[in-house]
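Lecture 7 notes: from sequence to structure.

We start with a single chain of 296 residues. Read the sequence below before looking at the structure.
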Amino acid sequence: MKAKKIIIPIIVLLVAAILVLSSIATVPVGSTGVVVQMGRVTGQTLAEGVHFKAPFITEVVAMSNMVRKLDVETASTSKDLQAITSGISINYHLAAERSASMYQTVGKDYADTLLQPAVQECVKSVMARYSAEQLITNRSAASVAISDELTAKLSSYGIIIDEFNIVDFSFSAEFDAAIEAKQVAEQNKIRAQTEKEQRVIEAEANASEKTIAAQAEADATRLRAQAEADAIKIKADAEAEANNKLNSSLSGNVLQYNAIEKWNGEYPQVVSGDESSLLIDISKGGTSVPAATTGE
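Now the structure, written as tokens:
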């Protein structure tokens, strides 16, 4: 009897504890609680935190609404039929208001069921619009196009694409070799054009230097000739001015003085008619020397 009295209260407490625990539902941070009653999604959702529910017949399933990352390897073909292997990285999350419908129609593994196939399809669709060369030079445009198409495809399910990136894509070895050969050819062409332009610039510079030097020499020659002409003119002007001054200063006394300076001490042998006047005064006292006269 004593054992029975002890066991019964313990059983009651255990049942009560189980009932209490079954009546409590905890929704994790960043999640939405989907209420399922007897295996049926009611459409009711619970926010993060602790909630009370009907024990045993009601279940609360947590659907994460936090941002998650998905990496996908895709295989596609370009517009010019080049095989492309792409590495795609996506950040996404499930809208809280669509948690119940996602759980009801797809389940918790919607990333594998919906997201990965949608990525494969959108990548193939967009890559087929571009040539391989366009994808190399304009990867960002292809990335935006895939992201837009993927967003439109998944928005009806409540899947939000937060970030989309083409991490890497590669082509066949043959195509890579062709691209490398083309780049080498273009680089050689650019190098040859640059060298040609450099030669033209150097030739023009040399011609310009020669022209400048010739012009400078011509200018120098002209200046020298002008200087010589100016010097000759100055000299001629100076001589003319000196002659003018000399002529203006030639009085009778000066002429007599010059004659005395040039006389050699001999009398002239012949003197014409009226030239019997005094020619030279050689005496200190001023005595005049009569000129010789002819017999005529």
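Confidence is low (pLDDT under 50) at residues 275-280, 282-296. Keep this in mind for problem set 3.
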